[in-house]
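User: Structure tokens for this complex, please. No commentary.
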Amino acid sequence: MPKTARLLPGYMVDRYRAWRALRFEKDRAWYARLAEGGQRPRAMVFSCCDSRVDAVGLFGAEPGDLFVVRNVANLVPPYAPDHAHHGASAALEYAVTVLKVAHIVVLGHSNCGGVEACHDMCSGAAPHLEEETSFVGRWMSILAPGYAKVSDTGSREERLRLLEQEAVQVSLRNLESFPFVKSAVDRNLLTLHGAWMDIGEGVLHVFSAETRRFAPLEIASA
Amino acid sequence: MPKTARLLPGYMVDRYRAWRALRFEKDRAWYARLAEGGQRPRAMVFSCCDSRVDAVGLFGAEPGDLFVVRNVANLVPPYAPDHAHHGASAALEYAVTVLKVAHIVVLGHSNCGGVEACHDMCSGAAPHLEEETSFVGRWMSILAPGYAKVSDTGSREERLRLLEQEAVQVSLRNLESFPFVKSAVDRNLLTLHGAWMDIGEGVLHVFSAETRRFAPLEIASA
Amino acid sequence: MPKTARLLPGYMVDRYRAWRALRFEKDRAWYARLAEGGQRPRAMVFSCCDSRVDAVGLFGAEPGDLFVVRNVANLVPPYAPDHAHHGASAALEYAVTVLKVAHIVVLGHSNCGGVEACHDMCSGAAPHLEEETSFVGRWMSILAPGYAKVSDTGSREERLRLLEQEAVQVSLRNLESFPFVKSAVDRNLLTLHGAWMDIGEGVLHVFSAETRRFAPLEIASA
Amino acid sequence: MPKTARLLPGYMVDRYRAWRALRFEKDRAWYARLAEGGQRPRAMVFSCCDSRVDAVGLFGAEPGDLFVVRNVANLVPPYAPDHAHHGASAALEYAVTVLKVAHIVVLGHSNCGGVEACHDMCSGAAPHLEEETSFVGRWMSILAPGYAKVSDTGSREERLRLLEQEAVQVSLRNLESFPFVKSAVDRNLLTLHGAWMDIGEGVLHVFSAETRRFAPLEIASA
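Assistant:
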């Protein structure tokens, strides 16, 4: 029994009421259908918890459109069926084998605090993250293999950006390590995609497996 | 190196361009400030990956407002500093100790596929989820202690709803097991909250630690 | 040493105690975080002292959201670095260069006593406001250039409304005269906005630089 | 003609619509009366622009209750009828001689950035604020006489708190320098009050002219 739980913060109640009055009423029939008939999202997104990046808004997703995992640094861990609690892997399994999504997008972003923590840990500047009890340190160690690739690059800023993009590539590679993902991809039932969002510029960069680079999407002219 | 990654699906590119032209342009200054000055969200939410529940929309959150974890069945695992990759725990640690959020909300919902999987697994109806290699089964075992409390209840529908609400309570209890959460709560720097959303009705129910029940929020009359 | 100060009026003490018991307790954690971590408001508002217009309520602002100047007729004076005490300019400088807000809104309103004083002074009907010792007269002379534009218009009521809207435009123009504002606007780090509130109708009108007019916001239908 | 003004930020439009739907509708008759019959506020408050302190909320003020000046550090400048644009003095003149308020409250607060700027400027730690072109510096020089009284006190934190409270006392003294204020006070038509808000603790401290100290208001027991 939770002992310290309190009623919802007042401002959230206010905002919910506004959502209810101004948004829900217009979508009521669709929500009723979705409740009755279940969800059938077309795509899954691995995105960061960061409050500045919202995949639902970015991709104009309507209720029912997007199955979204959000964790620190949008990481997919490697395939490891070891009894442990793997939240991201469970979501992946559910999306691919039960919901049968057609696309999985790994969405990284600029100014990522989790990636910065990984950078500082790997460069020796954050010993507290190396401790066994640091959840952030242990979690971000998934990205540690990516650090070696960027550690020689010029400025800290450049290294961080490259490491953020490594996070997307490491996750894509890890995705491919799940047998049920590989199987669906091989049968052309599933496609994998990587992208990286520049928060300040509002520009989405897309990963190309051919060039092994991220290139900015052209923005429609007004 | 990921081998099978493809460019972004065309409909997502279109949606992104619409977001860029219609939304980003209006918020450009704020995004620039957020990129430069970092995020400082007031609250954290544990929400489900489900495509029908979007905490950002529900709480009218603007860029920078809400730090969001999304995993199957909005679960917080118990405190376990055991070297493993704990995505939810890492996000929690980052939100409380680095970002210093003031509130954490666990947001459950109706028609939850993850909770249904737990129900079926615990009642013996889904042996494949009991296998060691089932990520969904292992992940949902976090909620298994909650099943005992609801297994005697009338209809399957009633049991599922109660188990969805148990998922919120189990997560709240697990939150309290993290030393840094307990410390912040004890010093009045952090409050914990539980809620459960009825998708079809569009009604948010709030957990009260006093009554140990979820009660629907009154909707403002016009 | 102030000689005549008295303890707070009893009704204010009562209201404070109610705020403390009913509002503060729920937001305690957030206030503690705001005190410790400092404010970081997204927007600044220039609003009137008028007791009938409250920007905080109108824009549903939570603690920490809105940096607010309130003076008679929501005026921004022109840029004038002349050693004098410029309260509004000091607030503007602090908001833009220290707090780095992303938006500045000038919020005018109907039935404005300050604007009416300006109208009567400029039309010769209020000679006492033309005296050097009239603070209201001197302050409202900031808006005097706007009077010429409306002096030919039909009824007194129409002239007052137009002059209230001129007050917003004059302030926007004066905002642009501050070098640090112009610089931030030019770099897309700051946006300027004008609005005018009809108190009796409860309708907010928004200024468009294209049409040079104020148009009422559509109110969402249920 | 303002050149760079843009339509209102989208989130403010959303928040306004929520205010309109959920708040205005309930108060519509009162707003209509207030628009038609004019405002008649009982009290005036000098408060800070700080986004964390909202006198309207703190004193549970309804539309029409409170005439509010907000400037950096809630300062009343000394009486100086010198042709210049004195926003605070104009508001004061209007409130006392036209609206005929019964009370004026100067409301200071903890963690005040304006007061901190004054402290650093007076102690020589912020030479840029001493420049003639610094609006914050010139404005905060109103409080400079107060710095001498606190400069010998122990810690920086203690000095800042005392200087915040000096800001209230300086403003009260300046209020008394206005002939129309003195006259109204002498005829028992107006009372002056000083208070200081501790943001983190949510405790209001009230100034006593007898003890020359600020004492916390007792909080009603639950």
